[in-house]
Each structure stands twice: as C-alpha cells, then as structure tokens.
Amino acid sequence: MASDTLPNDLNIDTAQLNQETLHYNNVTVAQNGEPSRINEAQLADLNRWKEETINIAIIGPSRQGKSSFINALIGKEIAEVGVLGPTTMKVQKIENPDFPNFVFWDLPGIDGDKFKRETYFKDIELDEHEYDLYIIVTKEMLGDSEFFVAAELAARGKLFYLVRTHVDETVAKLVKKKKPKISEDDAVAEIRKLLEKQLQKNCFDPQLHKVFLVNVEEPLESMQHFDMVLLVETICKRGFASETKTTAFLFSIKIRGPQMVQEMYIELSKRIKIVATASAAGGAQPIPIAGALLDAKLIYNEINLYLQKFGLTKTSIAEIELKANKEPEIIETKLTELLSTKNRAISLVREDSHWSSAKNLSYDLLITLLKSLSLIAVSESIEGFMALAVPIVGPAAAGGLSFVTTLVQLKVILRSVRDVAVEVQKWIADKELDRDPDPSEDPNFL
Fold first, then answer.
1. For residue 160, is it left (φ>0), alpha (ψ between -120 and 50) or beta?
2. pLDDT tens-digit series, residues 42-54
3. CB-CB neighbours of 301 under 10 Å
4. Exposure of 238 by Cβ count < 10 A (0-12 exposed, 13-18 middle, 19+ buried)?
5. Which of 16, 181, 271, 388 yields a CA-CA distance of 20 to 30 A from 251?
6. Tens digit of pLDDT for each residue in 429-445?
7. Can you give the pTM of this predicted structure?
8. What residue ranges define each of the domains in the chain, with the CATH number in brackets?
C-alpha cells in the first residue's frame, strides 16, 4: 500500500516511521529475538522524573512580587503575598502540592529590618544549601540590591535569572503619560531597552543575563503575557543538569496558554517511541491477548498522563472554572462535547467512573479501551507501514506490528489532546464566554 493512502488527518511522516521501525527491528535481532529485554531501562526512565528533587531559590528585595511569582508558576495561591509590609522574614519552603519534590525557597528580602546587605548571604545560609537555580525578582528597574545579589551569585558560579514583575502596571503608566502617545508594544520595548542599558552599565551581558518581563497578578493569564513562556523555555533549555530534572520542572508547573500547551506537547512527544517499543515487546508474547492487554495498559497510562499534564482532568477543569469565575460546568460541558467528537479512547480514560486504578484494570475495561481505539483509522494503514519496513525476524514479528500500531495511535491521541487543550485555553481567555447576551447587540432588537 502506498503512503498516499494514509488518512489525511494523521499527517505522519512515513519515512521517519520506517526508520523507527527499522531501528526497533535491528535492536530486536541484535538481542537474539528477545524483545522483552528491549529498552527496559528507557521505559523505567519515563517516570523517573517523579523521583527528581528540584530546588529553586526566589531572591530579591521585599514586596517585589516573589510570592506572586511562585503562585503563578504553581497555579495556586500557596505562598503568602505581602500587602502592607514584608511577608518573608525567614527562608520559607514552599512545596508544589501536585509534586512535593519540586520546592521553591522564598528567601527574605534584602535591606529589610532584619537582613542587611553586608551579612545577607551568611544570614540566609546560602552556601549551606544546594539550589538548582536562582531567580532574582524585582518589580521596578534593577537597583543596587539586585546587582549586588547578581554579582555575588555570579562570583559563586551560580545559575540565575532576572525577572521583572508587574510589567502591566508600568506599561499602562507609560501609555497614559507618554507624549506623543505610544502603543503597549512600544512601551514594552522601551522598558527592555532601559533594562539592557542597566545590565551593560553594570558589566552584565544582556543576552546571557537578560531580564524576563512577567505579569503575576492574574494567575490564569500570567503564562500568556510578556516573557513567562520564554522564561520557562529558557529554564528548560539550560536551567538543569539533567534531562529528567527538566522534564520534572515542565511537568510540575501549571500549563496555561497555547504556547505552553505546545511546549508540553513537544515534551510528551519524546515518550512515544519508548512506549511503542515496550508495546512491541509485549506484542511478541506467545499469547496474543497478553500483548494486547499490555498495549491497552500502556496507552491508558499515557492518555491519563496527557490529560493530567494538559490540565484536562475533571478536577483541573473544576479548579479553572472556579478561578475564571465561569458558570458551573460551562467549560466541562464544552470539553465533554469536544472530546466526544475527537477520540473515544480519551473520553473513556477521562471518565473516572469507567476505570479502576491503572494497576488493576480489568480485562473487560481493557478490551473496551482497545475497541475504542479502532476509531483511529490506522487498521488498513498498518499493512502499508509494515510492507515498507525491513522484514522482521523471529518472534519479534508480532511485536513489530504492535510497535507501529502503538506509535501511530499515541501520536494521534497526543495531537488530539493537545488540540483540545488549546481550545480550552481559548475558552478560559474568553471573558465573554459565560456572559448573558446583550439585547442591544441583536440586529433585530429594535
């Protein structure tokens, strides 16, 4: 079967798929036809991120938005925000309730009544703690305190980022006061230019130590404005010593806005080939149904992970509706309707009432999931994929089929979940979503 017969909506690179299948075949043959040994270490690595410990220190003067910044990343009001005066009077450990191993350390502000610059690092016992990275937070232009901290961290060889909060307030002031009047984009560009000049004046490279502009007062929207997504991307690219720490960081913060949805999609995509290889090992079992049930369990676990990380579980949607002040179940209703048109397998996994724990999925439930996967139009395409691939030797033949099937299924499922997540983010951002219609806007009103 030629590749042009593939369903148009799959949009899968056939050449790449053939290479992945060929690689699987070669590994299988090299291991003397024992597919159960393939990539067991890699499969174990898939969930190793859950065991990682991440420590991020938030540092800077008092009342600059440090606590608000932490809350924006976690997506919940965990850190106490100061109103009348400094809140953080000692080093505070702030755990992510969804991932306790991911800890923010809210450090006391500099130049307060208790913490003086001369003894600051000794007082907070900086050298006794091993933080993965440091984030220096300010809501104004960079001052002596920020540069003092940056210089001290640089001298110690510590990785740090500079973050300016409350940018929306400064932008609004510039737009209102500037003569002649300027746009919001021009105001942001002016702020960046001034910050770059400050960095250069204080002997810092603006490219290496750029200041990320963020807004942290609107938790549901903070990821979508200014540089929050860029900050997360930068941390993921060069913030951690290991890839598993990077995955743990991205999987442990709240994903909001289409850009962050795409970042999560890219990270989750890295898992698919490893899961498909594990599926292939199960597909080569002497009893065919055993391989099918392994496929179902693997796919169930992946779909469940996709829903969790894209914030599409029922619990996540309920929290979003509460924070967004939407009418009860309005987003949930829309989401259910959208999923029903996208993929039955996703809907089945999402309905908690249909399933027991992932470790104890019953035979009937697994078969139901496998049947639902037939909605993904790959059955007639599999023969074409397999015909294009190098012949598989020995007991890996059954596994090869399972490899391709699982690979294609998960690619389609992940893309479907991503698309749904993008739609949900649009609904969240739509402040008119649950507004009663204005009769004056009806052309037939008069």
1. beta
2. 677 788 899 999 9
3. 17
4. exposed
5. 16
6. 765 444 444 433 434 32
7. 0.77
8. 3-46+271-429 (no CATH), 52-256 (3.40.50.300)
